[in-house]
Specification:
With about 120 residues, the protein is mainly β. The protein is about 0% helix and about 60% strand. The N and C termini lie far apart (about 40 Å).
Amino acid sequence: QVQLVESGGGLVQPGGSLRLSCVASGSVASINTMGWYRQAPGKQRELVATISSGGSTNYADSGKGRFTISRDNAKNTVYLQMNSLKPEDTAVYYCYTNVKRGSLLYGYWGQGTQVTVSS
């Protein structure tokens, strides 16, 4: 089992910045990809960004040029730096990771952290 705990959400004005953090604990030795997803009210959960264990990154178009994902493997932590925030970035942001055991991947989610962009 892997537990994920997010932090760093809050209320920010348009154009502002936030940095989200997610710490993994438990069976972390086999952690593979880590990432961030978000879900706005009335919408489906969507990808924000992912980062592989080797550092390869992938971003949704909505965040390219504004968001940066990074990870510290020694601390089992993934970060999401969000700049130039827009009201449409308002959502609950969820941390995600997967763990490979044999030929299977097991996915784990954090409890989510609210990000509200409003003046």
